[in-house]
Design goal:
Helix content is about 40%, strand content about 15%. The radius of gyration is 31 Å and the shape is flat. A 6-stranded mixed sheet has the order 12-11-15-16-18-17, with helices on one face. Strands 1-2-5-4 form a 4-stranded mixed sheet. Among the domains are: about 5-155, Methyltransferase, Cobalt-precorrin-4 Transmethylase, Domain 2 (2-Layer Sandwich); about 160-230, no CATH class; about 415-480, no CATH class; about 480-550, Winged helix-like DNA-binding domain superfamily/Winged helix DNA-binding domain (Arc Repressor Mutant, subunit A, Orthogonal Bundle). It is an alpha+beta fold. Helix 8 (about 215-220) packs across helix 12 (about 355-360), helix 9 packs across helix 10 (about 295-305) and helix 10 packs antiparallel against helix 13.
């Protein structure tokens, strides 16, 4: 833009209300990190507002919109690692929707514009985190899931696009027969009509084609193996990988379309062994398979339905001796697994709505969206550990399905306490796995008398330990009283003085509560020794780096 166009743009922006979320005025520059966060926030806000651009303007006072000028020169500033600012910002925006920088020599002072395109098919992140403007504040987008869902809902649906050059001849005949069979199961009221439909009619009615044109969804679910090339640059592949206990790869196989048939073939590769579920003397079967096939199939169907095919990744199924890990690329749209389970609410949007509807019609996924909660319920009914979702990477969803029973005594607890609800069992499962739980979850378990200990280092309560025969384990996890440790330290020093700190660690590390990690245990020992020193019972006669601990002589002792 020339100076006249920039001046006109500035005047128009200054007439906007103060709380406009796709526009931010600042007098002077930010740190590079904050600047990138604002670009993410403005791109996402522009998407929600239906604006063609978001703007960050330097040299204008925020409240009065008065031009005051700025010393900020975006072309001269350096970012992390002494990189050019604009290159560093462009590398951090994912996806990079494009931004332009303009400088206007205004009569009241120099003005610098950042003009950024709106998010269009997914939230814009800056080095892994998406931001949004709410009123006049910048915040992380995940704190406002309704806004994140709204951004996703504005994207075009790749799965519903007609695949140029593809026809009914590119569909696998066996997959087409299977599709008819599953459609009849899902829609029994139309079972008699299905036999009279030709292939073109069936494909239209099952929402796999659009007026006879073959879609990307149709090729994913029913396409011949060689039809995967028609979907390029998207990747249509499920990879099964077998690993041993040391994470060494033992075997693998790749599966392309038709996914309607391939899911069962993937399941056939998984070694679903029989394991001893419970010790003898129970009324339950002595052996049970490692995995419920429905749980694996549900997790795999979810991965196919929610895969972000624009990221050109594949669905991975990694089998280890103790678990199945299923991973797909793309963010977890509900944002929080706990919320999905506790609210028992169906998903409001799908990443691939056309594909999801076709999978519903072919009896692959539940139209109510309750599959995730049912996976947890299935595991609980089998007295197995809960599925573990890992959402740490911004564009990847991983779920691990454990294939081993929990500690036998813990399994007895689930059997004895039929009154526990699913949420309590999920929280107890995390305590058993030494995973952190939020404070409000801690209160749920503590109020029910199921855990004790100081947050976040929790253990099963004494009453539960008595019920399940874990008395000795309970004491090991809880630890002994403080006087026991104080006496042990003082006795060691009195008998063998001088004593270095390493000897005291060796004495107590394996006697402190098992719920503490090594760093926490050493901190506990430090606090105990500090208490003895303050009471005048022990003293360090060495240096800080090389301590030599002695007891303090006390008359009459």
């Amino acid at each position: 833009m020339n100076i006249q166009e920039l001046s006109a743009l500035l005047d128009r922006l200054r007439r906007e209300p103060h709380e406009t979320e796709w526009l931010e005025f600042k007098e002077n520059h930010y740190e590079p990190e904050t600047l990138g966060e604002y670009l993410s926030a403005l791109a996402n806000a522009a998407c929600l507002a239906g604006k063609p651009r978001g703007y960050l303007v330097f040299g204008v006072r925020n409240q009065s919109h008065e031009v005051v000028g700025t010393t900020f020169d975006p072309h001269a500033v350096k970012a992390k690692g002494n990189q050019d600012l604009l290159i560093w910002l462009a590398m951090g925006l994912q996806p990079n929707v494009g931004f332009e920088v303009h400088v206007l020599p205004h009569a009241q002072g120099r003005v610098a514009f950042f003009e950024i395109g709106p998010a269009w098919d997914r939230p814009v992140r800056f080095y892994g985190t998406a931001f949004i403007r709410v009123g006049t504040s910048k915040t992380e987008l995940h704190k406002h899931p309704e806004k994140e869902r709204a951004i996703w809902s504005r994207r075009t649906d790749w799965s519903g696009h007609v695949c140029e050059g593809a026809g009914v001849a590119d569909l696998d005949p066996d997959a087409l027969l299977k599709a008819r069979e599953q459609f009849r199961i899902k829609h029994p009221q139309q079972a008699a009509d299905v036999a009279d439909w030709d292939d073109a009619s069936f494909l239209n009615k099952s929402r796999l084609t659009v007026r006879g044109a073959v879609t990307n969804a149709a090729l994913l679910l029913l396409g011949r193996p060689e039809s995967a090339t028609l979907l390029s640059p998207a990747v249509a592949r499920i990879s099964w990988i077998l690993k041993d206990a040391h994470n060494r790869e033992l075997d693998y196989e790749h599966f392309g379309p038709p996914f309607l048939l391939q899911v069962d073939r993937v399941l056939a590769r998984i070694r679903n062994l029989n394991v001893r579920a419970l010790p003898s003397g129970t009324l339950f079967p002595q052996e049970i398979t490692q995995y419920d096939p429905w749980v694996i199939r549900e997790a795999l169907h979810n991965a196919i339905a929610h895969q972000d095919y624009g990221l050109r990744g594949r669905v991975n199924v990694v089998e280890t001796p103790s678990s199945i890990l299923i991973a797909n690329v793309g963010t977890f749209l509900p944002g929080d697994v706990d919320k999905v389970i506790r609210q028992d609410a169906p998903l409001e949007i799908y990443r691939n709505p056309f594909l999801a509807e076709a999978m519903v019609n072919l009896n692959m996924i539940d139209t109510q969206g309750g599959g995730i909660k049912r996976m947890f319920q299935k595991q609980m009914q089998r007295f197995f550990p809960m599925p573990d979702y890992n959402l740490a990477e911004p564009d990847r969803v991983q779920v691990a399905i454990p294939g081993n029973v929990l500690d036998e005594q813990y399994t007895r607890l689930l059997m004895e306490r039929a009154d526990l609800d699913l949420w309590q069992v999920i929280l107890l499962d995390r305590v058993q796995k030494r995973l952190a739980i939020p404070r409000d979850a801690h209160r749920v378990l503590k109020s029910a008398g199921l855990v004790e200990g100081r947050y976040p280092n929790l253990l099963l309560a004494a009453s539960v330990a008595r019920l399940t025969g874990q008395k000795a384990r309970h004491i090991r996890e809880r630890g002994f009283n403080k006087q026991y440790y104080l006496d042990a330290i003082e006795t060691l020093i009195r008998v063998h003085q001088p004593i270095p700190r390493s000897e005291i660690d060796r004495l107590l590390l394996d006697k402190l509560p098992e719920v503490l990690n090594e760093k926490q245990r050493k901190a506990k020992i430090h606090n105990l020794m500090t208490e003895l020193a303050k009471k005048g019972r022990i003293q360090n006669r060495g240096s800080r780096g090389h301590p030599a601990w002695h007891t303090v002589d006390r008359p009459g002792v």
